[in-house]
Amino acid sequence: MSDVTTRSYPHKKRAFNVALTLASFAPVSTISAFTATRRHTTPIKPRSQLHASTITPPSQTAVGSRIRINESYPGLKRVHANPDVFVIENFLDDASCEDLIGKAKDKGTTRSPVAYAGWTDDVKDLLGLAASGPVTWLAILAAWYEAQGDENASVISLVLHSIRNYAGLFVIAAVLVAAFTKFRADGLQQLRTSSSTTLDDLSQLGAKNFVSCAADLFAPSSSSNADLPPAAYFEAPTVIRYERDQSLAPHYDANRSADVEDKNRGGQTLATLIVYLNDVQTGGTTKFGKLPATDDIRQVKGESNLNIIPRKGDALLFFPADQNGLFDERTEHEGCPAVDEKWIARIWRHAERVNPPFGLCDDAIRKYL
Ligand SMILES: O=C(O)CCC(=O)C(=O)O
Ligand SMILES: [Fe+2]
């Protein structure tokens, strides 16, 4: 069932598929699940994508190959193999990093959204459960109770009363399910405390350079569809600011299954590209709780998990799902609590074209890239 992304958070389970992906989250997102506004989640894919979990993670099915990238991209360094995680040294120059921060400040950042991806499935499941079980039995029971003491009660009137009761109880169940879903979404929002904004104006230096470098990096994976430029698969860059103590809880950027919500934004998230926009001395590392430490200089020392220290201009690249969209459990990651202020910019590369308002518009891609 659902994932809450920034996109999906791990404590999730199918029985109540109430779970965070973004999600990321996603991602997920102005709880994008409840609004039609642009999501600059994670989500918390959400997608998605920090759930209370009684949940046993599903057994890992064989994850296939990731999408192809330009393996000779300058500065590309693998810090984990299978699943592949790369850092890319000096991916963006200082001027681009500063421009991204400046434009995000000018536009203003708002609380980062967490997408409760899969909420439609949850609502369907919960309503189905209520309708087939308690609502039916309560309706019949209430009709039977009403018939007590009425000598003229017939089977037909019992059936009619049951139907009437069923309709009333179903409406009550629907209201309760809606309230529960809203409560759940509000809870997930606590998992991501940063603020963010999307920058889709490719006439701006930072956004243009970020998208154009990302397009070079992902060029080989779009060569199968020559009509679509690599940037057509991107969500518009999201700039995220973490102030002291702000964080993003462990989550997945892909969704286990949130097909309805994912449709408008290019389907599954196949790659996450994060650029650190400032140097961070303390806190704010990006940690992969299921992967071992690396010997790279950006690794937090004395830590047993892969945990990357933000360095201005460096990028981090990983693949939340394989090239066929199969969710990769091993890529769970988190933005550890900030001590120094931390700024990042993120692009999610989806499985299919991402149309505006989530993606970039074709004219701008043609004109600026
Ligand atoms: O802040 C970080 O280091 C990670 C951000 C992230 O995972 C996301 O935006 O989905
Ligand atoms: Fe993420």
UniProtKB/TrEMBL annotation:
Region spans: Disordered: 42-61
One Pfam family recorded for the sequence: 2OG-FeII_Oxy_3
Residue ranges of every copy of the Fe2OG dioxygenase domain listed in the record: 233-351
Domain of life: Eukaryota
Cofactors named for this entry: L-ascorbate
Keyword hit for Cell membrane: no
TM annotation in the entry: 15-37, 126-145, 165-183
SMART domains named among the record's database cross-references: P4Hc
UniProt keyword annotations, A-Z: Dioxygenase, Iron, Membrane, Metal-binding, Oxidoreductase, Transmembrane, Transmembrane helix
Molecular-function GO term, any one: metal ion binding
Compositional bias annotation for Polar residues: 50-61
Gene3D superfamilies linked to this entry: q2cbj1_9rhob like domain (2.60.120.620)
Residues making up the signal peptide according to the UniProt record: none
Protein name: Fe2OG dioxygenase domain-containing protein
